[in-house]
Backbone:
């Protein structure tokens, strides 16, 4: 892989989403900047940006899905909302007379 455009395209293809690939590259650059070891051989003068993209494009850095202790939406019981009760809590503006413009 030679150009940064080719690396970026390969990283996006590896991650499957342009936004997530960008976030992963940014996070990996911060890790490298703070001293994390490189998973690929770093060439002389090569930026952390290029190293991060190569690592992602080659599959050395991947995103793990976030796992939370949340009940799946399909099994959660819907919460009924009483629209009349909801609207009763909203203060209604007072009507003020509108004056017509004088010619």
Residues:
């Amino acid at each position: 892989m030679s150009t940064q455009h080719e690396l970026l395209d390969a990283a996006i293809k590896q991650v499957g989403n342009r936004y997530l690939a960008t976030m992963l590259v940014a996070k990996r650059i911060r890790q490298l900047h703070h001293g994390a070891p490189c998973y690929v051989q770093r060439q002389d003068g090569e930026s952390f940006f290029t190293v991060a993209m190569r690592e992602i494009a080659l599959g050395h850095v991947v995103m793990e899905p976030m796992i939370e202790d949340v009940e799946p939406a399909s099994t959660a019981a819907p919460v009924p909302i009483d629209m009349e009760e909801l609207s009763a809590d909203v203060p209604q503006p007072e009507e003020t007379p509108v004056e017509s413009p004088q010619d």
User: Anything to note?
Assistant: The chain has a mean pLDDT of 79. Residues 4-57 form one domain. The chain has four helices and no strands.
